[in-house]
Amino acid sequence: MTSTLAASALAAILFIAPPQDAPAPKDPAPTTPWHAEPVLEKKVVKNVAVYNHADATLETATVAALAQQQYEFLEKYTGGAPRWVLVHVGNKYECGFSMQTKPDPEMFLQAPGIFDTSANYAHEMMHCFMFEVGALPHWFNESLSDMAWFDSELELWKRRKEAWLDGFDRADYRSYELLQLRRKYGREYFRKVCAELRKRKDECRKVFTSSTKLDEKNELILTVLSTAAGEDVRPLFKEWGFNPRTRERQRGY
Questions:
Q1: Rounded to 5 degrees, what are φ and ψ at 210?
Q2: Nearest to 225 by CA among 195, 187, 202
Q3: Residue 18: pLDDT above 60?
């Protein structure tokens, strides 16, 4: 875990107040048990609203400032962003998760370790950023968020060197295929992937729905990945044993 004092000091310096003419986001409706938990403190910054359900002694402003940094990194990384991301901090979440709600996406972070930005900040917020292009297949949705976490650790928070990725280079790793593409095509590759997804946003919204077969969804994903790579990546996926019809349940998904 990173130093809490260091994180607090950094966040205090980087805290950004919302513009005076920017209306604050609407509070989410209490439609789940997590939303119904009391809000001990709320902090709104430029693009992030944090709801502290966990501990009144937490510096919610610090969490908000760190989340805003993550937001700004992913905005550049993906080439777009939702106007707001609502961040809940609680004690009763079994894991971090996100939720596509209207008008603003929401993410839920576990209070223990909340000042360690590697604790789901990038992964869950990336889900919030990609809701706009439709309901991505589970394997790709989770893997793309893993790539955003990798690149955040390397580029934004600067906690790791590139060699760190070697530890995930195993066929049983859940995001094996996308990691191989990142290693082959470099750090900028998934910026290109996100740009292509946004370019095809209307097509993605039509294809990434519950009524579309998985292999059709995967075909679009392979097309996007190939365009970003500048060459057809299908032979690589075939070599890795990727089955576009059953990938939903492979490698731990």
A1: -65, -20
A2: 195
A3: no
